[in-house]
Design a protein that fits this description.
Blueprint: E1 7-11, H1 16-27, E2 31-36, H2 39-53, E3 58-62, H3 68-82, E4 87-90, H4 100-122, E5 131-136, H5 149-172, E6 176-183, H6 189-192, H7 205-215, H8 220-232, E7 240-244, E8 247-250
Parallel strand pairs: 1-2, 1-4, 2-3, 4-5, 5-6, 6-7
Antiparallel strand pairs: 7-8
Helix pairs in contact: 1-8, 3-4, 4-5
Length: 257
Amino acid sequence: MALSGKIAVVTGAAMGIGKAITEIFLQNGAKVALLDVNETAGKSLMEALSKQYGQDRALFLKCDVESDELIKAAFQKTTETFGGMDILCNNAGILNERTWEKTVSINLMGVIRGTYLALEHMNKLTGGRGGVIVNTASLAGISPFLSCPVYTATKNGVVGFTRAMAAASTASGYGVRVNVICPSFVQTDLLSTISSELGQFSHLFDAAQQLIEKLGMLNMSEVAECVLELVTDETKNGEALLVIPKVKKYVTFPSLQ
């Protein structure tokens, strides 16, 4: 899939990985709707991107992925403004073992909610033109992080949902590919506040720090480049792409079929 003229929606787009994804999509010719709860950062980014890429290329919409109504409205506004929807990146996420219900709500339920509502616009069986969805998981979705069990559970859920959804889309003829990116530690605000978010597992922060030191850190552009690959390579469906410093590989899962 060439991105020129395509219409993308990115959640959690104001900062971090979402910002890097937005920028690489714009660089490759797409129009992008930026969804985020942080209105100040989102509007500021949209203004900067509009100056760089043109006034008709970027759209900011304040949106909480915990809300059906807000996501529906954002997707509708995107299709009205740009003329459709070809790509969704379910990227919004948090790490907070203290308010673990919210972590589940945003990281897992937000991905499911975003996917199902996007299909109302993208599904070829209901008048859409197909496309691709890329979900943001984590290395924790493949290998558990002992310091954050709930975060680990949500990211495992995102990987499993992605793989099942990709198979369901293919079997049903939706024309929508679904993939998941699984980066290790990335230089973002989420990582910088991790020590205060581990709650009852804060005593395991040193173990988390040791893993960071062992693996090293990714920069956001490295992750965005891998998302671009999952979007543009039309052979990729139901894939989990693991990204750690100096290593990029597609995960092989056991097959029971």
